[in-house]
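So, could you explain this one?
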Amino acid sequence: MIRLVAGDTGEGKTKDLIKMANDAIKTAKGHIVYLDGDSSHIYDLHHNIRYINVSEFPINDYKEFFGFMCGILSEDSDIEQIYVDGLLRMAHLPIENSNTKELISKLKTVSDNYKVRFIISVNCDTTGLPVALKEYLVA
């Protein structure tokens, strides 16, 4: 399952993602991973959530980001949920790019095949979200 948390800068997407992850750890049967673009929120998350600072890895485009995600999943078959704080920034994509839809589609396939939930924040007003991605929006 893919869930998108969309909104403009300063609307609280990161705060919402952190709350969701911390709430999920209470009932999770598997592991939870949180990807961020820096280490500023590492202490806001429960200590059992695996925190990954993506900026420490040489990811230059959405294909490399997708490979990185697959690598995380191949390393740990017990991952239940992955939170991605700032997908567009990490994958070096603008929201209107067709590659954004392709990346989400590939993540959905991985999600379906491996029963992993992806909860992803995107810095984009919900009205600017492409129609193909609106089905994934968290209300």
Q: What stands out?
A: The first strand starts at residue 2 and ends at 7. The first helix runs from residue 13 to 24. The helical segments are 13-24, 62-75, 87-90, 98-114, 131-134.
